[in-house]
Write a structure and sequence with these properties.
single chain; mainly alpha; Growth Hormone, Chain: A; 14 helices; about 80% helix; globular
Length: about 400
């Protein structure tokens, strides 16, 4: 394996661990929340707290990676992930043992989630900027596809990893995830090379959210994650109400199959197809968002579980196209000294969407079961059409300008 492949493998190991930690939280922490005396709103606040911290801190970490280097900021994020995740597990453990009453326990867990969000917010922008530093314009989309795929891998294997280890202890999966983050940090410290292209870039640049070069792609990230998380939240209710599936285990199994079909298609497209073909950001964005809109329209009228699974697989294809296109286009749109700043904004935008998506999805579903899908279809279609009027950077043009 060449040096570039070796470094990218280390980078992806940490990103997969980060993705696993995100998915484990729902699988492990969710069922224990009531057992330790937390109300549903408190659980929701704990989940949202880290997303708010990520939104606020990611841009600063991205700019910091311009000054301190990609590797140190990425390393700090992994260590922060391990510390925050272990602190959360210890707090839950204290609640299970009855060492803390619900009110002080909530504050302890909130502190752990804020530590996690503030520090782990460094992981994604540093990794995205690292890939931007180590890929040329023509292969930028391929590199960003691997970044996107790493989170998908973690999301897919996280629940299985958690279910297996939970047989030996309810919180063992969380401690194991923290240990994996420390292992990723050790590999980063001793094996990951700082990108050569990062040298001599001048002062770190600050980008504004409404900078016309990057705003379309931040908007795209916000919309796609707001819509997706809104749909994800109502999927179990939709399965029960639309298809007549009853029983907690049967509903959970059907929802898991739907999300698994989506995740597998996303991974295959980003790890295999996107690496074989150099697709332009323009094609990825226009096709990805319009496909997403079409899938949501069909999902609103799905008549059977097999149709639901097929449509979730098609949704996975849409996400697999759109997300690397967003990162690649934004990276190509800015100067070398702005890669850290744009990476920070790109990490904050989806987290911002995740703050609003679940609440909006649930509220719309209460009005009409098909409304989250239909409103999501309208939003993603409008963004897809918007990209026909945006001057999306061309890899070939960017390469010639650099030359």
């Amino acid at each position: 394996m060449n040096r570039s492949g070796h470094d990218r493998l280390i980078l992806l190991f940490g990103l997969v661990t980060y993705g696993m930690g995100q998915s484990l939280l729902y699988v492990i922490f969710g069922p224990l929340a009531r057992e330790i005396g937390l109300a549903e709103w408190q659980f929701g606040v704990l989940i949202a707290a880290s997303n708010v911290a990520i939104v606020l801190c990611s841009p600063a970490w991205g700019r910091a990676s311009e000054r301190a280097g990609r590797k140190p900021i990425y390393l700090l994020g992994l260590v922060g992930f391990a510390v925050g995740y272990a602190a959360l597990a210890l707090g839950i453990d204290a609640g299970l043992r009855g060492w803390l009453a619900p009110a002080p326990l909530f504050l302890v867990l909130l502190g752990a989630r804020l530590v996690y969000g503030v520090l782990a917010a460094a992981i994604q922008p540093a990794a995205t900027a690292y890939v931007a530093d180590t890929t040329d314009a023509a292969s930028r989309g391929q590199g960003m596809a691997l970044i996107a795929a790493s989170g998908g891998i973690g999301t897919v294997i996280g629940p299985a990893f958690g279910g297996l280890l939970a047989e030996f202890g309810a919180l063992l999966p969380m401690y194991a995830a923290a240990a994996l983050a420390l292992l990723a940090a050790a590999l980063t410290q001793w094996q990951l090379a700082e990108p050569a292209r990062h040298a001599d870039r001048g002062p770190a640049m600050r980008l504004r959210i409404f900078d016309r070069r990057v705003f379309p792609y931040l908007l795209g990230w916000f919309v796609i994650f707001m819509v997706f998380t809104g749909i994800q939240v109502v999927t179990p209710f939709f399965i029960e109400d639309r298809f007549g599936v009853s029983g907690r285990e049967a509903i959970t199994r059907a929802a898991m199959f739907a999300l698994l079909s989506m995740g597998l298609v996303t991974l295959v497209v980003q790890i295999v197809v996107m690496q074989l073909f150099r697709l332009s950001p323009r094609l990825l964005l226009r096709s990805g968002f319009l496909l997403f809109a079409g899938v949501l329209l069909l999902l609103a009228s799905a008549g059977s579980l097999p149709q639901l699974y097929a449509l979730y697989a098609a949704m996975g294809l849409a996400v697999a196209l759109a997300t690397p296109g967003l990162n690649a286009a934004a990276s190509l749109a800015v100067a070398p000294g702005e890669q850290g700043a744009v990476a920070g904004l790109l990490a904050a935008a989806p987290a911002f969407g995740m703050i609003f998506g679940p609440a909006l999805g649930g509220s719309l579903y209460n009005l009409a079961p098909a409304l989250p899908m239909l409103s999501g279809a309208v939003l993603t279609a409008l963004v897809g059409l918007y990209f026909f009027f945006v001057a999306i950077p061309s890899p070939a043009a960017t390469a010639s300008e650099s030359a």
